[in-house]
Amino acid sequence: MEFPVATKTQHEQWMVETQVFRKYNLFEDLPHHAQTLMLELRRDEHIEYLMRGLRGLPASFSVLDANRPWMCYWILHSLALLGELVDDELENRTIDFLSRCQDPNGGYGGGPGQMPHLATTYAAVNSLITLGGHKALSSINRRELYTFLRRMKQPSGGFRMHDAGEIDVRACYTAISVASVLNILDHELVDNVGSYILSCQTYEGGISGEPGSEAHGGYTFCGLATMILINEVNCLDLPRLIDWLVFRQGKECGFQGRTNKLVDGCYSFWQGGAFALLQRIPSVSEEQIVLPDVGHCTLDTSPTSTTSRISEVGNSSEGTSSQVDDTGGFRQEGLKVPFPVNYNDIGYDFINRSVEMKPLFHAIALQRYILLCTQAENGGLIDKPGKSRDFYHTCYCLSGLSVCQHICSDADSPVLPRAVSGPYSNLLEPIHPLFNVVLDQYHEAREFFSTHRAPFNSEVLH
User: Fold this and answer.
1) Is 235 a catalytic residue?
2) Cβ neighbours of residue 306 under 8 Å, at least 6 residues apart?
3) Are the C-beta atoms of 182 and 140 separated by less than 8 Å?
């Protein structure tokens, strides 16, 4: 009798499982004090690695010349999560560099003199918000940036990444996120975006980059966050979206980005962050999703193995649909009561909602994966065992770690020790999950841009 030959994908999965479980088995065999040391976040090594990268990069990084604002964001955000400040010289150099990336006609390019691009605009704005202070925040030309966003807006509701560029969910998120955090989001930018995002939700429940493509963790986060920021999240099929998300956390305890793909540390944020968003959507906690024993958020502290099963989604009922009406008001089907929406307040109101339901993923297990499997010994974080460190994975592994630690905490409540895997010194700064910036920096930016108003509407374009 012939047995089927294993595919290349199966072999790769088995190799990853072998490497991961070797680390987990070593951990389980250690005494408690040694386990605590093994779970320690290598904070000093990570900070040294990040600071060295911010000061200057070797010639080998020239292939990333069009991604320089991203390098700033990944490094600065990682340092902010670790509670580390940059000195005045580095801060001023970074602000000056990003100012040279800003196009006179709006938006930021990948480097000085390069065409403006929505992705690098998002990275530059988040970098400047992370630095904070008057010089950084006032360097953003919001008037011209608004005109750039309007130029990128398409009749389909989507956005182009750049002039003559691709239209996808990532472009929608970066445009709407930037407009929201800069207090320039209006009906012209929001109009029909929800319809485009809905066209990208797949039969699996996740969201793809464009209509007809495969559901993907990064695009699912972008689509979900965008729908929240434009107040149309209940238009999504949330039960199916959650069903797709919960099955992306595998036996390795980390997340994969797509069905039948390998675990990857960066999805600790892209998938974990999506769960942090879902927890604050009232229709998830109250109406659309019926979960077993859902009440005030608690953590299971019973002694279970690292590979404990992921919480299952229970029975679901059909959700309410919602939409923006012709006047920009929000109407929820069943209520039929329109009321005006200030789009620029949505992010603030969202983060101030109480968390009243359990995590829909295994937060402690994900922390174990990040701490045991993605930390490079000499600083920085990685995709999975056997891979090299880089600033991208350092940023999103740390962002995911912060999400896990704060998943059951309200914005103004302390994190309980049992929510933190390893020593309590592992605790990172909390983020605003819609924007992925540290929460204190978000509040500073919100206050700044709320008190520095200017006309950002259709008149700007004439």
Assistant:
1) no
2) 24, 27, 28, 253, 365, 368, 372
3) yes
